[in-house]
């Protein structure tokens, strides 16, 4: 069990924690802001000091330039033919210049950089370098270079009366600049040389010029090697000496990276002390706030905690169904104002009233809920739960009395069509009417249950008549012969029934239902409106079907399918009009698998669309080859499944493939069955019009075997009607088949459509079809479906000029 912690302490802990977090965050922000302000101010001071240093340096430079120009004018150099007199004058005035301008050295160099006058014998290399620039640019130049100390160099070009050029060079120390800078900014100033890379720690630094050696040497001695040169330039260096805080700021002295810097040392002890005092004030204020708020919160929540504990102590009375006692003992008079605990108490009292009413209602409705759990709300029939219960009960009764128990699994044929066309409300009305008719077909001892959707299960108990299940099935078929009225329309509904029987009291209820379900699907595959008794062969056929479905998936991935083309001949002329593309399966073990074995399974599998697109691609390539071989008017008929026909990507993909092969859609005929066409009229018309606009022809395959109707035939953009081969086979022996063919040809011609007869196998059939002006025919009489090799032989031997000789 977890330890108990009272509400006041929880609230106090959470509040203080929040305050602590807020205080820490605010304090951190304040300190960070203080540091940022300090660094911002320091950067501004550095910029100002850099400007002051540049200004003082420029003043010194201008002063020396002005003296040289004044001295040149004074000795009248432009009136002299050489520089000898000018050099003599420089030598005579050097001491005065050195004294008044703090000049260290002076040189006069001719155009070839040879000394005409030198105050010192050695001419530093930087002097010669800058002198070349002066002679080349013919304008004054200045530079700063450092060795043991930093020197300011100023050079001015001069010209005599002969037009010859010379350079006057003066060097002076930066001590005057440093002294002026110290007076201007109030900081101690020094020139320091630091022999470190930017990312390396500070080491081996030398102090060249100091404004206050007694202070600055001990300060620089405290430098830490942990700080890199780049960090020192960017942020400055904090140094503590004798309990005083100093900040060293570095400014690069030369434009080239030669390691010489202008260092300024500021005493920031007052700022550091003020910063420490500010931090202490914040901490003391936070501590005081914590303790004060802790006391206030604890006192405020103590009464709240006691009232909540009292309410919690009374809550078990609700579980004991002592609702009135709970309301009496948990009542509490509020103070001046109501609070959340008062609201909670009122809600708890209201809850107790509702629970009291609910408890009474539960006792009244328990029996009704048990009934609802066992019956279908729509039809009023028992549901699956009751079916399981009654089946177990009926099977147990077989131990006491011999007899047979039968289970009938019933499904309404084409129920989905009504749901899709009329809506679910109409479908529900149909299910209610179907349930009513089923009740009238069984005895009072039997049970009719709704299994789910449009499926019903009938349990026929203890019947000694083995024929009784079939009698019930006949009653059901008879009952559903009567149309069902939905609104203003009448619908004819048929049923498929599967039957399972047992005399074994130990039979498993689920197994009986599964067997009847399997027999029902077998009856539905045989056309519906039929009743079949389960046998073991049904299970074997189902197992074979599952194996075949798996093998079809493997066949698609292993590319075991191929296309064969069966010729279509124009009967009036014998011209080769086109071909029908037929799918063939070459099984690695069983050899050729007939289409009758796999087409039905394939049409109900998700692989149908994938394989259908492969058929289109292959047909397009074959058409391209036939056109290139000299058959420009050839047309290939391709069968379309319902799922692929309504695929929204179909027109897009077909248009793309035709464009890739430079083919016209007029070379292809799309064959649809009547069942596919009437499955969804609106969607069918939309899809057909889209493909028709691209140029495809449409044909109705197996005409006469489905929902033949002139009403929908007139609405659809159909070009060709194909008469099913079952009628052609029987046209010579069966007058009904003959009349169907004759009337179909006549009707189609009235509609200005073309007719194709399938399954022509002998000359007599051919002559009869030609007699009644059938347009096209295909069948074994002309050629069987041809693979690639057989197709080439057929074109070469039978139709070399595009016509087949018909007798």
Describe this structure in words.
The protein has 807 residues and is an alpha+beta fold. It has five domains: 8-176, 2-Layer Sandwich (Beta-Lactamase), CATH 3.30.450; 187-267, no CATH class; 316-372, no CATH class; 375-541, Reverse transcriptase/Diguanylate cyclase domain (Alpha-Beta Plaits), CATH 3.30.70.270; 561-583 and 609-795, Alpha-Beta Barrel (TIM Barrel). It has 27 helices and 26 strands. The strands form five sheets. Strands 18-19-21-22-23-24-25-26 form an eight-stranded mixed β-barrel. Strands 2-1-5-4-3 form a five-stranded antiparallel sheet, with helices on both faces. Strands 7-6-10-9-8 form a five-stranded antiparallel sheet, with helices on both faces. A hairpin with a 2-residue loop joins strand 12 and strand 13 (455-463). Helix 12 (415-422) runs antiparallel to helix 13 and helix 18 packs parallel to helix 20. The longest helix is centred in the N-terminal third of the chain and has 68 residues, at 7-74.
